[in-house]
Amino acid sequence: MSYTAPSDPKKPKNVKISQLCELCHSRKALIKRPKNLQKICKLCFFHVFETEIHNTIVSNELFQQGEKVAVGASGGKDSTVLAYLLKLLNERHRYGIKIVLLSIDEGIVGYRDDSLATVKRNKEQYDLPLEIVSYRELYNWTMDEIVACAGVRNSCTYCGVFRRQALDRGAAKLGIKHVVTGHNADDMAETVLMNILRGDVARLEKSTAIMTQSSGSPIKRSKPFKYAYQKEIVLYAHYKKLDYFSTECTYAPEAFRGTARELMKNLEAVRPSCIIDIIYSGENLRLRPKRAKRAPPQSHIEVRSDGSVSLPSQGFVDGNRCERCGYLSSNSICKACMLLEGLQKNRAQMSIDKDISVHGAAKLTRTLENLSF
Ligand SMILES: Nc1ncnc2c1ncn2[C@@H]1O[C@H](COP(=O)(O)OP(=O)(O)OP(=O)(O)O)[C@@H](O)[C@H]1O
Q1: Which of 78, 84, 261 has the most ligand 1 atoms within 8 A of CB, as the residue to mutate?
Q2: How would you class 205 by CB atoms within 10 Å of its CB: exposed for 0-12, middle for 13-18, buried for 19 or more?
Q3: Is 132 helix (H, G, I), strand (E, B) or coil?
Q4: Do the annotations mark residue 72 as ligand-binding?
Q5: Is 318 known as a binding-site position?
Q6: What sequence ranges are listed for the domain tRNA(Ile)-lysidine/2-thiocytidine synthase N-terminal (predicted)?
Q7: What DSSP designation does 97 have?
Q8: Per residue in 192-243, pLDDT tens?
Q9: For residue 273, how far is its CA from the centre of ligand 1 (angstroms)?
Q10: Which segments in the chain show pLDDT lower than 70?
Q11: Is residue 65 helix, strand or coil?
């Protein structure tokens, strides 16, 4: 096939045809796309990455003109790129949305305080309003205190339940009904895999939805990065020189999620498309209709053998309010309040044990190790 000389005046000299970008055929390829191994230049990478996110937004009709949207901003790579890109695409394609950064301060010293400093800089860099809501003000606990009381094993469960509710409450405070998060394709494939491995069909059914809404809540959540590979998000942040916080959470990810993540990484190394393929499989799974007869509702918090926590399920009623905190909840008592109750009991028990302990710190350590809900 004959090669047509590019019209790009910046065409590099002394570059072999095989080294040229596979899309524009004029600039030198610098990036091997993790998604499809295509060799492309930096500008074409920016263009395809931004276009793919725009296509996801448009084809799923994520936004409406005039809508106020809160970006769940943690200061990490995903949400930083999301905030930057949404602002860019909103201006370029006139979505007509109003973007606000919404950060949750979980109270993890040496981690969240540093990442929040990044979000505060992003606020200035992108000229977007920022709202910060803390676990301390909502629950009177910080994650550091929760881990000291309940151990590190279930920290992700506490943090996940509290963060979901905190994002909802933060959005409600701002009069916003749509929260977007930086969950990416890797996160989604990992969740599908985890639910398959656990046989958790109820969660499996919902795990690939781009837009979700908790029963009883007026606030919807969406994931514009549903099809974006983590490695491409990192490359984009790197080449755009975005200011983000790259330290992992002080508390390790939930044991089983960590294993699923490792498995996903190994699969991706052999077959990069498997991330999208798993999402595609999840999207097309059709589960058998549920049988009318259901197991009696679980009335206690169960700790599974893999270390994860299962919360009791009750009859779902839309528009309900939690009897304790008064916030919208599909259950009579919301999950956050159930977890808080367990924590309060543990705190009381711990202080009794501490008082009567003859071995002081050793006894307290033993108590922490034996705690379960
Ligand atoms: N403290 C927080 N405040 C606001 N939003 C958050 C917070 N933590 C997580 N999120 C939202 O949930 C998404 C997924 O969070 P996760 O903890 O999996 O982090 P992640 O994959 O490392 O993402 P990121 O790189 O944005 O931190 C984030 O991209 C962000 O939109």
Answers
A1: 78
A2: middle
A3: strand
A4: yes
A5: no
A6: 68-253
A7: -
A8: 999 999 999 888 988 999 999 876 778 999 999 999 999 999 999 999 999 9
A9: 24
A10: 1-13, 215, 292-319, 350-373
A11: coil
What pLDDT is recorded for position 86? 98
Q: Report how far residue 56's alpha carbon sits from residue 140's, in angstroms, rounded to the nearest whole number.
A: 39
Answer whether 222 contacts ligand 1 (Cβ < 6 A): no
Flag whether 308 is marked binding. no
Helix axes 185-198, 255-270, angle to 10 degrees: 120
Question: What pLDDT, on the 0 to 100 scale, is given for residue 319?
Answer: 66
| Four-residue CA torsion sign, 201, 203, 206, 209 | negative
Sheet holding 98-105, edge to edge: 130-134, 98-105, 68-72, 178-180, 220-222, 211-213
Query: How does pLDDT run across 284-297, given as a tens digit for each residue?
Result: 988 888 776 555 55
**For residue range 60-103, what is the model confidence (pLDDT) as tens digits?**
999 999 999 999 999 999 999 999 999 999 999 999 999 999 99
Question: Which amino acid is present at 209?
Answer: A
Cβ(154) – ligand 1 distance below 6 Å: no
Ligand 1 pocket, residue 73 CB under 6 Å = yes
45-284 is a CATH 3.40.50.620 domain:
yes
CB neighbours of 353 closer than 8 A, spacing ≥ 6? 363, 364, 367
